[in-house]
Amino acid sequence: MSSTQITTGAICLAAVVALAFAPMIVDAYHLALAISLLQFTVLATAWGMFSGPTRYVSLATTAFFGVGAYTVAVLGEQLPWSLVLLIAAAIGAVMAVIVGLSTLRLSGVHFVIFTFGLAELVRQIVVWYEVNMTRVLGRYVFVDITQNDIYWQLLTLAVIVFGTGWLIARSRFGFALRIIGEDETVARHCGINVTIAKVALFTITATFMTLVGAIMAPRFTYIEPSIAFNATISFEVVIMALLGGAHRLWGPALGAIPLTLLFDFLSARFPSTSTLIMGVVFLLIVYALPSGVVGLWEKLKAWRPTASKMRGAQA
Amino acid sequence: MTNAVLTGLVLGGMYALIAMGLTLQYGVARIMNLSYGEFLIGAAFASYWLFTGWALNPLAGLAFVIPVSFGISYLLYRVLLTPLVRRARTRDALEVDSILATFGMMFIVQGIMLTMFGGAYFSYSFLAVPVTIVGEVLALNRLIAFGLAVVVGLALYLTLTRTRIGTSIRAVAVDPIAAQLVAIDVTRTSALAFALGGALVASAGVLISMFLTFSATSGVVFTMKALIVVVMGGVGNLLGCLVAGLALGLSEALVATFIDPGLTLAVNFALFLGVLLVKPAGIFGRAQR
């Protein structure tokens, strides 16, 4: 390990410790904001972990988020909290495996179409089940979880997500994924089982998204399918990850922070036109910053003399 | 049973019409348009506005809506999407870029409609007269919509197979690079195909507004169904659109009648996956690469 890596590690550790004490200092409004920031950071990072290397655009974030939230709404009162989280994660993983196996073997288009409809599909099935089997539509979440607990759980999850991403990047698995991203045919010729690699990565990231939904559920108090499967979340996550740059692990987080603040401001100030403004912001990013802030940063770096270039290659 | 089949056929005819426009946009212009359904709803609102505000018959309104939407789609391709086509190095890169750009567009169009009309459901009553066919009662507006869908689809088919411009559109669909060798202006032809797709979806929107309720946010469902039909039938194939559209409409109507109306989307996806597991390139699609 070089000294730069040790310094980076120490800074990250210090930042996490500092963030862990945040609920003691800030007021309720800023705590809520911090929770939103963490939520979108985790979601966008998980999105980028899959879509960055494979270049498959997933529009299904909210499907997994909603499944997590709904699992808590159904089971939250009957089982201990950690068990509920485990079950939510398991359901999300199983769903991801099914979706992955049925679409990732085919071309990218099928995957996009399927993820585009997945949230709506799951929502419809949940509504159908609730109306016909349990005869309740909409549930209250009464669990003994405070805002501070949500914050700490999300922080832990964020650390796990970044840790997983870091580990994947330096494993054989991560190397295989990079080859797949560059050229799938070449990857296949190298003897990489492309389908298994993609499905595994999709499942890992989807499980994180499901967990975010589960952790956030107590904040809603009242959940019904149209709240849990809100298409805006998928949209926001994609735009955040794109702004930051999905090809680097820490890129999406750079996009998540400013955009969470922006959307928070927009929905408070211009509730009726926020959809429109968000769409415009999205288009601006797609046209002006195709590889995100990180891509821009790397391009600027490439102009400077060779010393900094070598450091860039090392990092 | 007969009623379910008739409803399914009408519905399937509409899906086929919607999908034909998308197959032009995706198969020829190579733009995977996720904002497609928003343009359908836009046309539905235009028709609503013309009918309630100006007492203009929706069928006469078609003469106004189709050219306008053709122009809008043409401009959209020329101004917003051509830069992406130029920027993209490969077909896959263009696909990702167009997905992202039209995904943003979807929210813009939806946002505009939400600010103008709000989130409520709209409908108007036009030719809601019962007609009896083979012992079953159907509304006249549905029948007219179906008839017009058949006429438009037939006209499109004849244009593509019998005219010079139609042949060049098909040539671009097969191979955009080789098409240049026979002096086809690919950018212009693509723009034309994209605009033609926009005109088709607008006409479908007007027809659908005659017998279905719609809201500013219901476009997504139509985009989804159009995508499913296009891919299921084989990208760029009109006959595939027809067969897959009818299959989708029929299965939906049968499930809604005999099992549960709340499960139509599940049936769509089951059908979609079922077909693709057997034929990954779609019913009439040729395997690529």
Automatic annotation (TrEMBL), chain A:
The chain crosses the membrane at residues 7-25, 31-50, 57-75, 81-104, 111-130, 150-169, 190-215, 227-246, 253-270, 276-297. It is a multi-pass membrane protein. GO terms for molecular function: branched-chain amino acid transmembrane transporter activity. Keywords: Cell membrane, Membrane, Transmembrane, Transmembrane helix. The keyword Membrane applies. GO terms for cellular component: plasma membrane. Coiled coil: none annotated. InterPro entries: ABC_transp_permease, LivM-like. It holds the Pfam family BPD_transp_2. The keyword Transmembrane applies. This is ABC transporter permease. The lineage of its organism: Bacteria, Pseudomonadati, Pseudomonadota, Alphaproteobacteria, Hyphomicrobiales.
Automatic annotation (TrEMBL), chain B:
Signal peptide: none annotated. Belongs to the binding-protein-dependent transport system permease family. LivHM subfamily. Keywords: Amino-acid transport, Cell membrane, Membrane, Transmembrane, Transmembrane helix, Transport. This is Branched-chain amino acid ABC transporter permease. InterPro entries: ABC_transp_permease, BCAA_transport_permease. The chain crosses the membrane at residues 6-24, 31-51, 57-77, 98-123, 143-160, 190-214, 226-250, 262-284. GO terms for cellular component: plasma membrane. GO terms for biological process: amino acid transport. The keyword Iron-sulfur does not apply. GO terms for molecular function: transmembrane transporter activity. It is a multi-pass membrane protein. Its main location: membrane. It comes from the Bacteria. It is found in: Cell membrane.
